[in-house]
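Z., the sequence and structure:
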Amino acid sequence: MKTANCPSCGAPVVFRSAASILAVCDYCKSTLIRHDLELEDLGKMAALLEDASPLQRGAEGKYKSGHFAVVGRIQLKYEDGVWNEWHLLFDNMQTGWLSEASGSYVLTFPSPAPDQLPPFDELKVGQSLALLGENFQVNAKESATCIAGEGELPFKVGAGYPAPSVDLANERNFASIDYSETPPLLFIGEQVELGALRMTGLRERETAAGKARTKAFNCPSCAAPLEIRAKGTESVACGSCGSVIDVANDNFTILSRYNIKISREPLLALGSRGRLRGADYDVVGYLCRQVKVDGVAYEWSEYLLYSEQEGMRWLSEYQGHWNFTKTTTRVPNAGGKVSSVNFLGKTYRHFQTANASVTYVLGEFYWRVKVGESAVVSDYVAPPLMLSEEKSDQESVWSLSEYILPEEIAAAFKPAKPLPMPLGIAPNQPSPHTGQAGRYWKAFGAFAMSVLLIQIGFLIFSENRVVFHHDLALDRAAAEQPINTEVFEVSGRPTNLIVRNRTDLNNNWLYLDMNLVERDTGRSYHFGREVSYYHGVDSDGSWSEGNARNEAVLSEVPAGHYFLQIDAELPPEWNTHISDQLDVVRDVPGWTNLWLALVALFVFPLLAWWRGLSFETRRWAESDHAPSAASDDSDSSDSSDD
């Protein structure tokens, strides 16, 4: 740490970092350049724009167990707003930068830059660039200018100082290239949550009764009363006259106007407050966006939420379906329209890509919003999550959304009117059938095992005993009168009897009309069987049909003394005899009940699978990958080839 006196006012100026060459005097705001212990006064530093950042010089925090202090700040302005770069000094004298924009924070550190970085003008949003052995994607390109600086800084800055920069990201890291220096400076880091930095010494939050203080003003166009509720607000859209007002400073200049003849009534009123997912939010902005697919316009609503703890979040609503959204600097490895992307260990399938434009705005926003601004939006889904990219010529912004039920929205914000019931199926709506088929398959396996064990028990304990055997020689003479077999005894509990016929039929048929008769009571069981068997060879090879064997099953036959009456019918042209081995078997384990039980059990998982498939079919019918869309693309391709 080195201390010198300001040459303008004599106040002490402290340089904590050996890398710092510039400081702004806290008392007279002189810009001072350090030459060892001598300070050169470059004149007054321009005033910083008033903002509502919770950060300030002197605040301290921790990052990956390393302690740091905030020692300086650069305030930068670009086309759509303002952001802060806070200069950090760690206890080990390492320096870093905490970038703050729209309630999001990125912590980066100086890193050796490759010898040959592409010129600023040659880089384009969406372009891939290899840095330090990793592939990054350009997601923002800004020609910013410096508004002012404060505290100690490692390089010279001043009002109007050009600061062209390019932001890049991949799934893990964030990178920024500062083209204000030659050669350009490279910074590598990651997105962080302010709460995770465990910071102390932050600015006191301007609150009243636990609610964010609002700033009231009148529209410079129609004098309608307006309010600013969120820190970091850059513009406010007046719903009375359609003016979009720059509120970054107190001049309140009008940025643009839009047609208010077609107005929309938000389902969540601006100014509504509610607690959602563990944080308190104010509804501060409302806009409508629209895409056109095959000439049909689809419009949805987006609500900008502001939280003292969490910063900016979004709620989107379409046909009663809601999503809770947070932007991220992380970028999946995807370029253009791809079938799927991987992000933080999860695979997201491409759902739709379309050009979305803003059709209506109301309230406050963290950029200079305007009706008509557009971006190419690509959605990738992994229900209940959806990963989206909004890409324009200036930037590519990724966001992660989670499907949220309207009942949770209503409970949080208590709208004046009931929220509409959801219609259709949302792209990332969780399927109510997810996991059901698996549970049914598990139950099917358990019940099937039980049924199989029961069947094995039947196989083990069934008697399966032949109680009668008789060899029949059937010819034309035997066919003219019934055949009565010997009497045989059936004992034990009532059970099934199976009458089996095994013949030597060869390219012929035989019909047996049989009657099982109990000798003592006269009770009888009548049944008939046709036995046929044909075979041969043709141009397609060998063939056969039918079977020379047949059996009849008689259920619940009680004990008794039985004999069989058999009437045989032979083909008229048949002149030789047919051999038939006749067996009567008692208590034979059957398989029919087993198969019927398995089929009945199979219906439930099959139905669950079908319902899940039907749900997914309806979901993807609205995507770029619907069967009809594929057919249309194919037809278009064919016609273009012609």
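Confidence is low (pLDDT under 50) at residues 206-212, 629-642. Residues 108 and 189 are 4 Å apart (CA to CA).

Let me know what you think.
H.
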